[in-house]
Amino acid sequence: MPQQIAINIKTQAYHRMLGERFTLHDCTGGYAHLTDEERAGTRVLITAGFKGATGAEMDELPNLGLICCVGTGYEGIDVQAAIDRGIRVTHGAGVNAGAVADHAMALLLAAVRCIPHQDRLTRSGAWNYTETPRPLVSRKKMGIFGMGGIGAALARRAAAFDIEVSYHSRSPKPDLPYAYVPSLLELAERVDYLVACVPGGAATQHAVNAEVLAALGPRGYLFNVGRGTVVDTDALIAALQAGTLKGAGLDVFENEPEVPAALCAMENVVLTPHMAGNAPEVQEMATDLMCDNIAAFTAGAPLVTPVPEMKALAPAG
C-alpha cells in the first residue's frame, strides 16, 4: 500500500499530484473524519506556511513523523512542538524564488507606471495624453529586505532594469555584488523602492513601521512579497493617505484574506491575493521536492531540505 499522507491545504494541484503517488487524506477541514486506522497509518503531513500545524494538530496523527511545507516560509508550523514529538519538518526552500521575484518586479512596474489605472482609462475610452507623466522605473535605487533566494533572484532582475541594488538581512552575503546596509532604517533612507522578501514570525513583526516608511519618503514605494505581518498596515495606510509615501504594491496582508478597505480605495496601491509564488512550474517543483523528502524520511536518510531548526537532528525513519 502506498505511503499514507494527510494534507491540510486547499490547493488542488497538490492534491492531484500527490494523490497520484500516495494514499492522500484530505484534512483541509480537520482530522475528525479519519478512522483510527487512517490516523495510525499516516506518517506525513503536507501543509503551507500560512496554515501550518500546532502541537495539538500533530497529536491528531499519533504516528506522524514528517511535516512537509510546500513553500519556503513555515511560520505556521510549531517547530518546537515537532521537535518535542520527534517529528521532522521540511520546507520548499528556493522552489518559488523565481516566481516571487517575477511578481515583485510586476508589482513595481504596475505601481510606478500606474498600469492598473491606465488600463481602466483605456478600456473606458478615455484616451488622454494629459494624464500625469509617470516616472522611469530604471535608474533608481532598490533596497531589498531579506537577501535569501527570493531577494537574490529579485536583485538580478532589478539589475537588468538598470536599478542600483542594496540590501539588509540578518548577515552580509559576501558572495553577492550588492551593498549590504546594516539597518533597515538606513536602507529605507537610501532607496526609492523598498521590497520586503523576509518570512513572517516574531523576528520580523512590523519591521517595516512608521519610522521606516518615513525614511523611505514621499517619492518612495514599498513592495511586500514576504509576509503581511512584516509591515505595520495602519502605518502604511497613514503614510499613503498623508502623501508621505508615494505608493505600494502588496501581495500579502496581515489578516488574509481580509484586505483593508482603505488600501482597496487607493489608486496608488497595486494589490494581488498572495499569489506571487503560484505557478504550475513551481507547484511541480514543490511536489517533486516533497516527494524527495518523503523518500528520504522513509529510507531513514538525511532530509533534502530540512528547516534550519532540524539540520542538527539525526535522520529518523
UniProtKB/TrEMBL annotation:
Keywords recorded for this protein, A-Z: NAD, Oxidoreductase
Highest taxon listed in the record's lineage: Bacteria
Keyword Nucleus recorded: no
InterPro entries: D-isomer_2-hydroxyacid_DH (IPR050223), D-isomer_2_OHA_DH_cat_dom (IPR006139), D-isomer_DH_CS1 (IPR029752), D-isomer_DH_NAD-bd (IPR006140), NAD(P)-bd_dom_sf (IPR036291)
Limits of the D-isomer specific 2-hydroxyacid dehydrogenase NAD-binding domain: 105-276
Stored Pfam families: 2-Hacid_dh, 2-Hacid_dh_C
SUPFAM superfamilies per record: Formate/glycerate dehydrogenase catalytic domain-like, NAD(P)-binding Rossmann-fold domains
Residue span(s) of domain D-isomer specific 2-hydroxyacid dehydrogenase catalytic: 36-307
Family statement: Belongs to the D-isomer specific 2-hydroxyacid dehydrogenase family.
Protein name (Swiss-Prot/TrEMBL): Hydroxyacid dehydrogenase
